[in-house]
Every structure is written in C-alpha cells, then in structure tokens.
From TrEMBL:
Its main location: membrane. It is found in: Cell inner membrane. This is Xanthine-guanine phosphoribosyltransferase. Its EC number is 2.4.2.22. It holds the Pfam family Pribosyltran. Mg(2+) binds at residue 100. Transmembrane segments: none annotated. Purine salvage pathway enzyme that catalyzes the transfer of the ribosyl-5-phosphate group from 5-phospho-alpha-D-ribose 1-diphosphate (PRPP) to the N9 position of the 6-oxopurines guanine and xanthine to form the corresponding ribonucleotides GMP (guanosine 5'-monophosphate) and XMP (xanthosine 5'-monophosphate), with the release of PPi. To a lesser extent, also acts on hypoxanthine. The lineage of its organism: Bacteria, Pseudomonadati, Pseudomonadota, Alphaproteobacteria, Acetobacterales. Pathway: Purine metabolism; GMP biosynthesis via salvage pathway; GMP from guanine: step 1/1; Purine metabolism; XMP biosynthesis via salvage pathway; XMP from xanthine: step 1/1. One of its GO terms (cellular component) is plasma membrane. 5-phospho-alpha-D-ribose 1-diphosphate binds at residues 46-47, 99-107. It comes from Gluconacetobacter diazotrophicus (strain ATCC 49037 / DSM 5601 / CCUG 37298 / CIP 103539 / LMG 7603 / PAl5). It is a peripheral membrane protein. Guanine binds at residues 103, 146.
Length: 168
C-alpha cells in the first residue's frame, strides 16, 4: 500500500499526525472488513490502543481486549516482558490483533506465540518485522524512528521575519 498524502519522512524520523493516523487506520479497516467478522480485537498497548479504537468503530466490533508487552525503555530495546495477557482472546481464533508499528518483530513474535490463530494487522511496518504481520498500511525504513501524535506536542514557532532580526 502507498502512504496517504500527508505522511512526512525526514532524516530518520517519520512524523505521523492525528489526521494521518486516522486515515491510515480507516484504510486498514477497509482491508479488514472482507476478512471479518471478528469476535474481538486485541490492542497491543500502548501504541495499538488508538488505532484499535478507530478500527473497532469502522468494522463494528465491540469487544476490545489488550495485551501489554514492554520491549523499549525510551529508544533502547530491552528484554521483552508481558505485563498483561489477553485472557478473553484464548488462542486468538476469530480475533484481530492491532498495533501501531511492527519494528524489529520482538513484540509481534510474543503476541503471535500467545495468539497463534489471530490475524495481526499494523498501521506501519519496518522490514525486520514485516514478515510477522498479516496486513499493514505503510512500510517504513528500518532506520527510521516513527513519531506518533501521542509522542509529540504542538509547538509555537516564531515567524521567520522575527528570527532574522527584522522588525515586525
């Protein structure tokens, strides 16, 4: 799939806006509808929560379970730990797993081990993790750090004329 208009990729960082995230989640939902109906969704926390909510609305799914796997401490990858298992999903049969990004694939491997019969879909995929996802919207270069809307904040930037010392 091609990125939607508005996705910016610059200098090893990709900034995803709220609008872009919503468009990409709806695009993913559109490709998921023919594969349903699903018994429920398992959102991979924290990044998969917002995409899962959007997709749940679009595919008319009411049951949302979560799995919490911690693999990063800031930007450093550590030992993966499951903080919360998705008890309601059983082995995953009939369930859809949603995450924001599959990167190295470490989290996806753990989730797949716990839910081997579920369908795994992500908004964004890097080459190392891509083989572990069933569907994704945009492929991102492996060396790119994705900045999601919940990781950033709007910031006032003064007009260029003020920076150059020109009286305003």
């Amino acid at each position: 799939m091609q990125p939607s208009p508005g996705t910016r990729f610059t200098a090893n960082y990709a900034t995803v806006t709220w609008d872009q995230l919503h468009r990409d989640a709806r695009l993913l939902a559109e490709t998921l509808i023919p594969r349903g109906p699903f018994k429920g969704i398992v959102a991979v926390t924290r990044g998969g929560l917002i995409p899962a909510a959007i997709i749940a609305r679009e595919i008319d799914c009411r049951l949302i379970e979560t799995i919490s796997v911690v693999t990063y401490d800031e930007e450093e990858q550590g030992k993966p730990t499951v903080l919360k298992a998705p008890a309601a999903a059983g082995d995953g049969e009939g369930f859809l797993i949603i995450d924001d990004l599959v990167d190295s694939g470490v989290t996806a491997q753990i989730v797949r081990q716990l839910l081997p019969k579920a369908l795994l879909a992500c908004l964004y995929a890097k080459p190392s993790g891509r083989p572990l996802t069933d569907l994704f919207v945009v492929e991102v270069p492996q060396d790119t750090w994705v900045l999601f809307p919940w990781d950033t904040a709007p910031l006032f930037i003064p007009p260029l004329a003020r920076k150059s010392g020109t009286p305003g």
